[in-house]
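Handout, tutorial session.
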Amino acid sequence: QVHLVESGGGLVQAGGSLRLSCAASGRTFSTYTMGWFRQAPGKEREFVAAIGWGGDSTYYADSVKGRFTISRDNAENTVYLQMNTLKPEDTAVYYCAADPRRLPLTYDYWGHGTQVTVSS
């Protein structure tokens, strides 16, 4: 079992930055693929970024590539999402997810989300 808690969301102007954090419980954090997803009002949840066990493999949605950076600190059981040059269309609830598989198509564990609002 993995318990995930996101933090760092808030209100920011377009062009600004935020860093989201996701703290995970459990002693096997380093063996989980970690992902970030988001869901905007009236839209389906979408993939944002993912990072492999050791942090050397990262994956991004085209919409955030070059602006967002995912990273992890296995000693602190935490995964981060640095979001730069934010746009109003980045407004959404952002969710952290974890899965023990290397390249999961679905994730077993989810946090409750943190709201990110980007004003124009």
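The second record follows below. Compare its token runs with those of the first.
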Amino acid sequence: QVQLVESGGGLVQAGGSLRLSCAASGRIFGHYQTGWFRQAPGKEREFVAAISWTGAMTYYRDSVKGRFTVSRDNAKNTVYLQMNSLTPEDTAAYYCALDPAGDGLEYDYWGQGTQVTVSS
């Protein structure tokens, strides 16, 4: 069993920054990819960013490119999402997810989410 725990969410003014963390524990094997997703009220969940096991490959949705940075520390089994220049449109519950196959096709494990609220 794999557990993912997100932290770092909160209330911030537009233009501010937050850093989310995703700590993984349990039976983790292989070179998994980790992704960040978000879901705003009344909207579908959407992909935000992802990072490969080595950290050599990162992926972002267009609207966060240049503002968000995903990174990982495998020694700590933790992935981070640094979010800068936040806008009210970034307000959502943010979830991290783990893709054991490492190909980005299927995320099998999900955290409980952390709320990010950006005020105008």
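Points raised in discussion: The mean pLDDT is 95.
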